[in-house]
Amino acid sequence: MLVSLPQVRPTPNPLAKEIAILGGGITGLSTAHNITRCIPNAKVTIYEASSRLGGWLNSELVQVDDGEVLFEWGPRTIRPDFGGAGVATLDLVRMSQSP
Ligand SMILES: Cc1cc2nc3c(=O)[nH]c(=O)nc-3n(C[C@H](O)[C@H](O)[C@H](O)COP(=O)(O)OP(=O)(O)OC[C@H]3O[C@@H](n4cnc5c(N)ncnc54)[C@H](O)[C@@H]3O)c2cc1C
Questions:
Q1: Which of 38, 42, 44, 90 is least surrounded by Cβ atoms within 10 Å, i.e. has the fewest?
Q2: Closest Cα to atom 36 of ligand 1
Q3: Which of 21, 56, 60, 71 for a ligand 1 pocket mutation test, highest count of atoms within 8 Å of Cβ?
Q4: Is 71's C-beta closer than 6 angstroms to any atom of ligand 1?
């Protein structure tokens, strides 16, 4: 069951045409997802310094003799009490469940 959280993000400007997001971690990705839902016609660009998206989130599926083992090199739970990233993750989960 998802807990009820306070609204922590400002409402995006509905007239914005081009939006830049710095960082492709879970916060940047969920922000981009949210903005594209709120302002479908805006051009959203994510600027990511590294060669992959996800930031600290990094899952690796390793083949072993009996099948596969999933390694989580970063977070494996959601802690909304530590601020933006956790709340953004829960928002993303919630949004992915709504039509
Ligand atoms: C080992 C480990 C275990 C963890 N376990 C948990 C857990 O179990 N539960 C939990 O809730 N949290 C956990 N955390 C914390 C969680 O990983 C972070 O809170 C969350 O991933 C932060 O997401 P973020 O998108 O805000 O930042 P980040 O994941 O740091 O993403 C920021 C992104 O911005 C990019 N960037 C930085 N500077 C620039 C720049 N100037 N220009 C362009 N791009 C830039 C970076 O390359 C990165 O991709 C853990 C963290 C670690 C390290």
A1: 38
A2: 23
A3: 56
A4: no
CA distance 41 to 76: 34
Q: Are 73 and 58 in contact (CB under 8 A)?
A: yes
- Residue 78 structure tokens: 């959601």
Determine the number of helices (DSSP H) and then strands (DSSP E) in the chain.
2, 4
Counting atoms of ligand 1 from 1, which one is nearest the CA of 84?
Answer: 26
Whole-structure pTM over 0.85, yes or no?
A: no
